[in-house]
Amino acid sequence: MTSLNRFIKIGIAVILVFIIIYLGSLVSFVFKPLLSLLSIIMVPLMLASFFYYLLRPLVNWMERPKLNRSLVILIIYLVIAVLFSVFIIGVFPSLRTQFFNLVNNAPNLLNALGKQLQDLEQTGFLSKILPEDVSPLTQLTEYLNKGFSLLSNYVAGMFSFFSNFAVIMLTFPILLFYMLKEGDKFGQKIVSFMPKRFREEGTKVVHDIDSALSGFIVGRVVVNLALGVLMFIGFLIIGLPYTLLLTVIAVIMNFIPFIGAILSAIPIVIIGLIESPSVAIWSLVIILVSQQIQDNIISPYIFGKQLDIHPLTTIILVLVGGDAFGIIGVIVIIPVYMIVKIVVVKLYQLFFKQKWEDA
């Protein structure tokens, strides 16, 4: 009888949740201002969270009894401003030159690409890797068009993602300042809303989430920078044009799980193919070798067992996140999954594990 009553209560709770969702859909206009506000602050908040986990260890290390936290943060801001100025003066001109050269030479590059494809078709190389009843040039052109289309969609998504630049630049440093100054108290405030008997476990969950996000973000930056160094050296050795620009694009795109590595490889291989088929092949070899070093040597050393996510799970999460929320969903889906996993595991241990084992 007790089990039946519990089942009825759960059933009623589920029905009430669906009723609330349905009623919410009928008055969706009420939530539009809230959603608009959320969309405005989402990018600055994500950037502030990202740099919070990057800079927090440095802030904690620099903080001293005679050097308060606010002053430490301002000193770090000043150092970042100096480094950014050095980047603008020393690196950005070369990056800008390569970018505009690539844009201005685009028609010539496309003509050169078409000539390379025709030469490969005449030599019979493409017919060996494509079906006999398919025109190699037509099929490969279709693949390239699909690749360009996919790449363009994500680049467009990135531009819309950072479209409101003024709002981001005004709010992001302020959010980051207060997060670095008061961020450690945020978890304590969340735990304070819990019933007293759950506060100890709640503190552990908040600590686990904080450690997981910190390890993931810092580790991801280190791994991607190492990947960029490997690819840059390899591209210099084979003489790939636009080496710096393509490496920067690859490093940025690799922050997008799974899909980013594929998208970043498309322009690299195309530019290599325009130069010569051998450069394209060597470019692909460098990408694959760098990815293998990243996945099998650098990542296990940096992450250890902290990032225990199966590759298939990553692919599914990225596809679902991208379909539901676009570029933002693709970027945040892995951290969100990590948070949900920690919370669900803790809830299972607290409320269901003992009952399940005793059943």
Automatic annotation (TrEMBL):
Pfam families, alphabetized: AI-2E_transport (PF01594)
TM region(s), chain numbering: 7-31, 37-55, 67-92, 154-180, 221-242, 248-274, 281-303, 315-340
Domain of life: Bacteria
Lipid bilayer topology: Multi-pass membrane protein
Keywords: Cell membrane, Membrane, Transmembrane, Transmembrane helix, Transport
Annotated InterPro entries: AI-2E-like
Gene Ontology biological process: transmembrane transport
A Gene Ontology cellular-component term: plasma membrane
Subcellular location: Cell membrane
Keyword Calcium: no
Family: Belongs to the autoinducer-2 exporter (AI-2E) (TC 2.A.86) family.
Identification of the protein by name: AI-2E family transporter
Organism: Paenibacillus glacialis
